[in-house]
């Protein structure tokens, strides 16, 4: 179970009227192209940033809603979300900083950090082979970054536990399975899966859901199942088309080649297997569903209108006047 699985309070999805496509057309006409150019520049030298930005988006929207709370740095008085648990391995913050700096030069105090994350995610997805999509904007930045709010699905969660987290955010079972397609370009580390590569001393069986034998042998050689090992290599969650957003991830888990327990369970659980099979058979359908699910995720718990603020620096709250 995820150590940050805490009590849940519903985080509402906003109505379509609260956000709109082209929100900055008048106030900062080049806002979206500025973000796109920054993301494209960094992707050109490091394509792995697509997965990093996509993961940042998920971790921001899934905790307090899409309010850029994940960007706040800790202070002497308070630790922020960024430096707790699995958030500590997030990266890509300098890309958001660069986009914000350019936007502040062009349109001061206009474009929120929350919208920058959302726009950067859309651009990263397209660069990695995903479908381009219209993104409603108009989010404002939150005024809290609370470590006690962290509730993220973990790699060992049961389907039912993970679904409870998604439902608390107004998302469906299909959304959960579709958004797992982000793992088509994701990575994990050997430390996250070493237990799964070992046999139970009581039963002699391997821990976790079934895994293709040849694939397990490959991971055992890569990871070294000795827990005292200081090596902690990264592993692509989709071993087939590791740098492309496509439906190969679903075909892989149907073959027993899911790296994370939670991914493999999607192909085994009766409630999700049918969705996995459908996505594995239709890449165009997956691409459309993935884009739609990202937009729905981006509507979770947003601040609009006069709520929150527009940060001048994404890493710190504005100084009260």
Automatic annotation (TrEMBL):
Binds 1 heme b (iron(II)-protoporphyrin IX) group per subunit. Its cofactor is heme b; Ca(2+). Coiled coil: none annotated. Pfam families: peroxidase (PF00141). It comes from the Eukaryota. It is found in: Secreted. Heme b binds at residue 183. GO terms for molecular function: heme binding; lactoperoxidase activity; metal ion binding. GO terms for biological process: hydrogen peroxide catabolic process; response to oxidative stress. GO terms for cellular component: extracellular region. Keywords: Calcium, Disulfide bond, Heme, Hydrogen peroxide, Iron, Metal-binding, Oxidoreductase, Peroxidase, Secreted, Signal. Disulfide bonds join 28-107, 61-66, 113-314, 190-223. The keyword Nucleus does not apply. InterPro entries: Haem_peroxidase, Haem_peroxidase_sf, Peroxidase_pln, Peroxidases_AS, Peroxidases_heam-ligand_BS, Secretory_peroxidase. Its EC number is 1.11.1.7. Ca(2+) 1 binds at residues 60, 63, 65, 67, 69, 81. Residues 18-318 form the Plant heme peroxidase family profile domain. It catalyses: 2 a phenolic donor + H2O2 = 2 a phenolic radical donor + 2 H2O. Ca(2+) 2 binds at residues 238, 241, 246. The record marks 55 as: Transition state stabilizer. CDD domains: secretory_peroxidase (cd00693). Residues 1-16 form the signal peptide. Removal of H(2)O(2), oxidation of toxic reductants, biosynthesis and degradation of lignin, suberization, auxin catabolism, response to environmental stresses such as wounding, pathogen attack and oxidative stress. These functions might be dependent on each isozyme/isoform in each plant tissue. PANTHER family: PEROXIDASE, PTHR31517. This is Peroxidase. It comes from Cocos nucifera (Coconut palm).
């Amino acid at each position: 179970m995820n150590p940050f699985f805490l009590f849940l309070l519903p985080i509402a999805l906003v109505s379509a009227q609260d956000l709109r496509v082209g929100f900055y057309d008048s106030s900062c006409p080049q806002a979206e192209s500025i973000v796109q150019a920054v993301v494209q520049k960094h992707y050109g030298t490091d394509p792995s940033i697509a997965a990093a930005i996509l993961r940042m988006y998920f971790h921001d929207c899934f905790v307090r809603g899409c309010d850029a709370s994940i960007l706040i740095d800790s202070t002497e008085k308070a630790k922020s979300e960024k430096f707790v648990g699995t958030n500590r391995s997030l990266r890509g913050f300098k890309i958001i900083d660069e986009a914000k700096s350019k936007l502040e030069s062009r349109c001061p105090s206009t474009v929120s950090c929350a919208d920058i994350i959302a726009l950067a995610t859309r651009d990263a997805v397209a660069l990695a082979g995903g479908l381009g999509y219209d993104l409603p904007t108009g989010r404002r930045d939150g005024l809290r970054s609370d470590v006690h709010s962290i509730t993220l699905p973990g790699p060992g969660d049961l389907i039912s536990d993970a679904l409870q987290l998604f439902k608390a955010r107004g998302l469906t079972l299909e959304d959960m399975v579709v958004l797992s397609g982000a793992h088509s370009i994701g990575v994990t580390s050997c430390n996250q899966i070493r237990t799964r590569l070992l046999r139970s001393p009581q039963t002699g069986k391997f821990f976790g859901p079934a895994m293709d034998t040849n694939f397990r042998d490959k991971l055992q050689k890569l990871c070294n199942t000795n827990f005292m090992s200081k090596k902690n290599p990264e592993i692509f969650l989709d071993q087939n088309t590791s740098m492309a957003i496509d439906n190969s991830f679903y075909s892989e888990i149907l073959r027993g080649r899911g790296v994370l327990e939670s991914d493999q369970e999607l192909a085994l659980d009766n409630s999700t297997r049918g969705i996995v099979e459908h996505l594995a058979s239709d890449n165009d359908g997956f691409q459309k569903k993935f884009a739609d699910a990202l937009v729905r995720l981006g509507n979770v718990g947003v601040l609009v209108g006069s709520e929150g603020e527009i940060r001048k620096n994404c890493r710190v709250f504005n100084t009260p006047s």
